[in-house]
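**Backbone description:**
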Amino acid sequence: MTLWERFSAIDRLQQGRAFKIIATCVIALAGVVGIGALLLTRTQGSGLDLSAIPDQQAAKILEDMLGGRSDPTLMSVGLALVTLLFIGVVWLGLGLTYLGLAVLGAALVVPLSLFEPTRGLAQLFAGVIALTFAFTALMQLLRLVLAGSGPVLSIAKTAVAEASRQRVSLVLMVILVFALSAIPMLLSDQTPLRYRVQAFLQYSTGGSFWIIGLLCAVFSAATVSFDQRDKFIWQTITKPVSASQYIFGKWLGVIGINLVLLLVCGSAVFLFTEYLRQQPAQGEREAYVASSGGLSEDRQILETQVLAARVAVLALPPEINPEALDQTILGKIEAEQRANPRYQDAPDKRAKMRSDLVKAFGDAYRSIEPTKSEVYVFDGLRPAKDSMRPLTFRFRVNAGANSPDELYRLTMIVSGSEPFVREVGLGNSQTVDLSPAAIDDEGRVTIEVFNGDALRGAPNPLTISFPPDGLELSYSDGSYRANFLRVMIVLWVKLAFISMIAIFASTFLSFPVACVVAVGALVSAELTPYLWKSLEYYNSADEKGNIKPFAVLVRAIAVAIAGVFRLYGDLDPVAGLVEGRRLAWDTVARGVAYLAAVAGVLFLAAVVVLRKRELAIYSGHA
């Protein structure tokens, strides 16, 4: 029997119903055993020796912090999804093919992993092979899902097939696979575990989204533009296919590809993050077991501030008397008119003065001179009090040039308790763990900060200040894993929004111009938060108060762009995930509803434009 005949026989075997049924039973049994083992190991406790902690209340709080580690729900769901994916591969008739390729991949990876110089290369190849297998399997399943009858599904299936043929799409997919596989190689074992996890989440999730976003924008523009350029759209529109079915089918195919890519990347990021989580942190002899007993600082910060779903509460702004503020603005206007008789009062100038004064009051409120103190109030903490969840006070101190070799001493009094002194570096975030007992009956916490060591009467040499987001109390509210799921949902909706922009642009623009519009929309939408901040410092008048027409035009355009994408920009799931902030379901629902409404308007506009186009005008021309 020749080699080709052997391959043909193997293919006939994996296509047979009997083989598929037997393989399905084996995979399902392995999945059940795996989930059972996971449930058994995860319910054996957190691994933390609570008897080594003298304060039983603190021990209980620490155990609550780590409760998510022993919750096997999401990991079990993930293992069940992997089992279903393997079963899907079998029923696609690729079971033995994937098994053979996996054996060949292992034959390449295992020898490389045995030697230290090539171990990183082995990890890279293993990641590339695993991601490629998952991507190709999910793409096959996507084609199977879209295999139904009807014009919409047919067009969507054609769009998926186009993505596999276009060189630009393939190049971006290859870059995505290699980049995601290479990121773990950049992590150093000498770095604290919390920083490794944060760096991986930042670069893997953020980098994957940007690459998929570029792919989404380019392919969405290409799939409609190329249909018109190559006259394929004639064969579609001349059949009983309406413009709305054509547009929706294209969009459905694109968001299906986006879903596959996000599933692959999101699963890889989640699984490797869980792997990192089980590695020993600084000060631990093994994961979750500190060398000195209790909980190491690195592990505590990781579990409560990074792999968490924190609700953050900023310090309340200073109280400003509206009448006094109006009088101050009036005095400034009169002073300007005395200094410059040509100065003209205008509502926008008053609004700018008001904004500047409010900002100045806030800066003064967050600044403390040597030997002085200031009281900061945090409200809305009743849920933390009711659930007895610990608080984390995060602050960042600035003084002078923020010299990295200087240490300042701050004295703090939390809700009238005994004062304590903390030695802090300048310009870096610091944290203090607080008991929920510090929350009063109204759900508030007051923190008085002294600029210096008040217990010894030793002030710091310079005035200290806190940035606007430099005073924050937070508490954990939910699971990091559920938060990760919400982040993936938001990223998928964002990609769907960008794809609709690209499809709309490609109905009346050429491919290069539609790409510029789509990529520009992606960049503008993602940079909207930075655009709003820059607008605070952009002046449309010169030093003498004269209006600059060009500056007014630039500001108007920037405000319009930032206004359109404001809710999109407010949905910054990657930054929240890296910082351990909770992405609430109501925030997700509000952002999804807004993006869906705008995408719906763009869909209707694309349908109208396509109906108005005389697509056959190019008949007979090359």
Remarks:
- The first strand starts at residue 284 and ends at 286.
- The CA atoms of residues 506 and 513 lie 8 Å apart.
- The chain has 22 helices and 13 strands.
- Confidence is low (pLDDT under 50) at residues 54-58, 618-622.
